[in-house]
Amino acid sequence: MDAIHRSWRNTTEVASAGVVVDALDDAARTFYIHHEFIPLLDHRNRLFLAMVTIDRAFKARRRQKRVLEAGSHSSKSDKQNKAARAAPERADRWAQNPTSNQI
Fold this sequence. Notes:
The chain is built from three helices and three strands. It is mainly alpha-helical. The chain has a domain at 2-54. Strand 2 (38-39) and strand 3 form a beta hairpin.
């Protein structure tokens, strides 16, 4: 994954059509095919993944991460809002019974 990410990042400086891998065995070949690599016709264990496919995958991952981060930020603000709404209620209860320990 790291090599594919670095290849994708470097496309801003060096043009590339994709990534070519040589699968060491059938298990590796199956793994690559599962992850959208395309076997080359003349070499059974040589596979290709287009840079456009890699680009789409990393951009989708980035969007998903932003959505998750935005969701966690909104939950924090919800907690802060609840605490702010509860503060006057606590103050009112204390004003009604200043000797109470339950603020």
